[in-house]
Structures are given as structure tokens and as C-alpha cells.
Amino acid sequence: MLIRKDICVGCGRCHPYCPAEAISFEELKSAVDQEKCYECGTCLRSQICPVEAIEESPNVYEYPRALRKYFSDPNATNALTGIAGRVTEESKTNDVTNRVGPGQVGIAIEVGRPTIGMDLTDVQKITRAMAKAGITAIEPENPFNDLIQDHKTGDLKPELMSERVLSAIMEIKVERSQLLYPSYAERGGQRSAKRLLRGCHYPPRTGVDDSRRSASDHSGRRIYLASQCQKQPGPG
User: Considering Cα of 180, then 181, then 184, then 185, what sign does the dihedral take?
Assistant: First the structure.
């Protein structure tokens, strides 16, 4: 984003609307710090400028700068998915393509949030950790998938390392067995298990499929699933 100094009257009304705090005064006129700017367009959409001095940057759709726009402006249509937003249409539902099959779990990992943001160097730390854990396949239609240079190592494309965005979401799927918590015996009894589950307790429920709350490994020990944790007070 940019603010035309030949039009700006220096009222400062646009300053609080910038989630990156990239707008400040320069010689009594408002100006946008291009390094800080996410290209989210919040200042423009607010329509707060009394003289319409706020405009899109001329290079906002040029690579790699365009990355900021597509991952920060909720109204920007991503060239990969054809929809507005940072994820695919299936990120919150599995009803259309059924891409997450039986025994699998769909996961969305979000880094940053509107008004918070992050550098892509922070995201690369996560993708590298995922690769070390054997999770190398990100949903092909997810816009973030195109940012990865090497899926085996989790390295992002080097030309993107200086970019920053408000939020990025990685969509992956794993086998349900990869989400199992250690058993009571492995954690040293009920107290350790409670601590691991952060205070979650699974009360007995008649007529409910127990597989929703727990699963058993080959030795018959009960293993609790993180994905089904219920925030309820436990006994004692």
C-alpha cells in the first residue's frame, strides 16, 4: 500500500487501521513503511481517508511481493485456488471431495493471525520440523504448497525469505494412529496422563462408541486421542 503525499492532509486517521503499524508521519504527511506493510489493504478498505490518498502499491501483484497480498488480504483471489483466502474450500469440510479417508485426520496448521502476522522464516521452522517428523505432503491445492522448494527438507523458496504475511495455513492429512497419546502405563499412571492431557477427562458415556474417546494398541493398553479431548473436570 502507499499514501500519496501530494494528496495527504496529514490527519493521521489511517494510522490505527494498519495491523502492521506500518503507517507513520513523515514531514507531517502519512507514509507507509514498505518493509512492514503486509499489503492487506485494511487501510484502503476502511475508507477512512477523507481525501482518498491511499492506493495499492504499483508492484503489489509482482512476484514475490504478491505473496503478501494473497496471504493477507481476505478479498484477494488466489491464482492457485481460484478463491479468496489462504486455504482450499475443503479446509473446514470433507463433504465435497472426501479427500480425508477412513482412519485419517485432516489438520490445518495456522501461523500468524490477522493483526499479528509473521515472517516466512518463522513458517520454515515449522515446515522443517514437519519434514523431520515424516510429514512432507501438504494438500496440493493449498496455496502454501507452492511456497515449498523441497518437501523432503521443508525448505521454502529462498526468494520468499524476506516476505511477511498476516497468516499462512498449511493443510495436511495424517493417519489417526499418528495422533495417539501415550498410554497410562507409558506415562507412569493416571496423574501423568492427566498432566499430559492438560486437565482433560473422559467421563463414561453409555451408548457412545468408545473409539471416539480412546483406542487400544496391540497390547490392549488404552491410548487417548488428542483430537477428541474434552475440557471437563476430572475426578479427584
Answer: positive
Pair 202, 214: CB distance under 8 Å: yes
- Which H helix or E strand runs over 30? strand 29-32
| Tens digit of each residue's pLDDT (9 = 90 or more) over 126-182 | 999 989 888 888 888 888 888 899 999 999 999 999 999 998 888 888 888 777 555
Q: Model-level pTM?
A: 0.67
- Please state the domain count of the chain: 3
Neighbours of 145 (CB within 10 A): 17
What range defines the domain where residue 209 resides?
180-228
Please identify which residue in the block is written with the cell numbers 493398553.
221
Q: Are residues 167 and 143 in the same domain?
A: yes
- 178: nearest Cα among 136, 138, 134: 134
Residues 148 and 165 in one domain: yes
For residue 84, give the C-alpha cell. Answer: 479468496
